[in-house]
């Protein structure tokens, strides 16, 4: 996948959740769109092309199951080889995930599930926290995200990187009832982090270790429970990875530093960037000048529909909010990505008001002050907002995907969802 200011090539499900569209069997290449130079001020002309859905169905699906690839998170494994953490979704239940494959590729035009490496799958076990203890449960494995040091990587002085060809992946695991209806709640909640160690030798990608780690034991003194939506960044011999955790008992988001020791990759520090405001699903990029840029999804009023970007010029020691645009997006995933030429951009779903009939079983959405919020939940349109040159504001949005216009009405009276638009520049 190559995304530049002059040419946006949306080839992978990771870029615009094309796998979500492909899962419905309805994805097809839309027409190319152009924007004039006048539309983006002094910036060069923009051209956008979109490819087909690359991954739709895993190579092996158990009889009676309906599996589809959903989210995907790209990362580099070798100088000319990349990979995807490819999440698999099941048919039953909202957010009922099945597990994750690693799909390797050396050509964005030829991405296939054949030869995919199985990393995680759901498990049928008992819930130790249920009442009575031992109720049948399904351990649902959510999408894996993490980091990897490519094989052959070098330090800045030209020496070989000591951890080249290794990496990690982290995923939330949640206990669901045996009928797959919903997760266990309240005192019966059973969840933990599944931590994987990876290795690649130029031929084989392997999972070397898999551990179950309670949220509050991944890093002493902190509770880390929400891996970010972007791949970890190299920082010397370390990796910087955005994660959500607990700040004084409330949820917030920040940046973890990971180091590799005898037991593999582990977080050694976590520095919150947001306050204890419920922010989650963070993303992190390194700007052209070396500074760090950070973004996170708002959880509630007044920030749930906002675009917020923080900046650090000292390697992540201190942070300052540099962009805050209210009411631009829905209460949906938001990602801070970076084009191949280094330009950062925010990707998310445009705030819209649903004009169709809402079933009576759904309550009328209202904000904390009781005002009706009839919009903000649709994921039909994905937009890119490039950061301006000063990194203190956003350029006008670029419509990257309009599902209804491109694919027609969603089948069965539902709506299209194109979300989690995570991207990484790979070669």
Task: Describe the protein's architecture and organization.
The longest helix has 6 residues. Helix content is 4%, strand content 43%. It has two domains: 263 residues, Tachylectin-2, Chain A, CATH 2.115.10; 159 residues, no CATH class. The N terminus is likely disordered. With 427 residues, the chain is mainly β. The strands form six sheets. Strands 8, 9, 10, 11, 12 and 13 form a six-stranded antiparallel sheet that branches. Strands 14, 15, 16, 17 and 18 form a five-stranded antiparallel sheet that branches.
Looking at this protein, list some descriptive labels.
26 strands; disordered N terminus; mainly beta; single chain; 2 domains; Tachylectin-2, Chain A; 427 residues; 6-stranded antiparallel sheet
Low-confidence stretches: 1-41
Helix content: under 10%
CATH class of the largest domain: Mainly Beta
Structurally, the number of domains stands at 2
Radius of gyration: 21 Å
Please give the CATH architecture of the largest domain.
Answer: 5 Propeller
User: Do you know the CATH topology of the largest domain?
Assistant: Tachylectin-2, Chain A
Q: What would you call the structural class?
A: mainly beta
Please give the count of helices: 3
End-to-end Cα distance: 8 Å
Shape: globular
- Percentage of β-strand residues: 35-45%
Biggest sheet, in brief?
6 strands, antiparallel
- Number of E-state strands: 26
> SSE string, helix = H, strand = E?
EHHEEEEEEEEEEEEEEEEEEEEEEEEEH
Query: Oligomerization state of this entry?
Result: single chain
Mean pLDDT across residues: 87
């Amino acid at each position: 996948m190559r995304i530049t200011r002059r040419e946006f090539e949306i080839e992978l499900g990771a870029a615009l959740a094309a796998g979500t569209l492909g899962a419905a069997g309805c994805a097809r290449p839309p027409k190319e769109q152009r924007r004039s130079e006048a539309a983006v001020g002094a910036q060069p002309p923009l051209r956008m092309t979109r490819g087909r859905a690359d991954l739709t169905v895993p190579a092996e699906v158990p009889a009676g199951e309906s599996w589809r690839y959903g989210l995907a998170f790209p990362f580099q494994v070798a100088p000319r080889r990349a990979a995807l953490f490819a999440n698999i979704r099941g048919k039953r239940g909202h957010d009922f995930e099945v597990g994750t494959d690693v799909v390797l590729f050396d050509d964005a035009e030829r991405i296939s599930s054949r030869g995919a490496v199985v990393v995680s799958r759901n498990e049928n076990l008992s819930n130790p926290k249920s009442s009575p203890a031992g109720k049948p449960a399904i351990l649902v494995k959510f999408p894996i995200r993490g980091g990897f040091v490519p094989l052959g990587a070098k330090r800045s002085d030209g020496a070989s990187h000591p951890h080249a060809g290794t990496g990690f992946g982290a995923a939330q695991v949640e206990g669901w009832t045996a009928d797959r209806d919903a997760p266990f709640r309240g005192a019966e909640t059973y969840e933990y982090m599944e931590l994987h160690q990876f290795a690649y030798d130029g031929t084989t990608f392997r999972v070397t270790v898999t551990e179950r780690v309670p949220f509050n034991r991944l890093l002493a003194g902190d509770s880390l429970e929400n891996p970010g939506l972007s791949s970890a960044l190299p920082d010397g011999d370390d990796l910087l990875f955005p994660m959500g955790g607990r700040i004084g008992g409330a949820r917030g988001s920040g940046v973890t530093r990971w180091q590799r020791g005898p037991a593999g990759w582990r977080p050694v520090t976590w520095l919150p960037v947001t306050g204890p405001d419920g922010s989650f699903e963070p993303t992190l990029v390194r700007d052209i000048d070396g500074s760090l840029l950070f973004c996170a999804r708002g959880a509630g009023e007044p920030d749930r529909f906002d675009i917020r970007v923080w900046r650090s010029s000292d390697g992540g020691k201190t942070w300052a909010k540099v962009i805050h645009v209210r009411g631009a997006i829905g209460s949906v995933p938001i990602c801070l990505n970076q084009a191949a030429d280094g330009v950062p951009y925010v990707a998310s779903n445009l705030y819209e008001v649903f004009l169709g009939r809402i079933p009576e079983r759904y309550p009328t959405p209202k904000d904390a002050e009781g005002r009706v919020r009839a919009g903000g939940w649709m994921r039909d349109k994905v937009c890119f907002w490039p950061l301006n040159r000063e990194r203190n504001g956003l350029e006008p949005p670029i419509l990257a995907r309009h599902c209804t216009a491109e694919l027609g009405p969603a089948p069965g009276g539902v709506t299209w969802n194109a979300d989690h638009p995570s991207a990484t520049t790979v070669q």
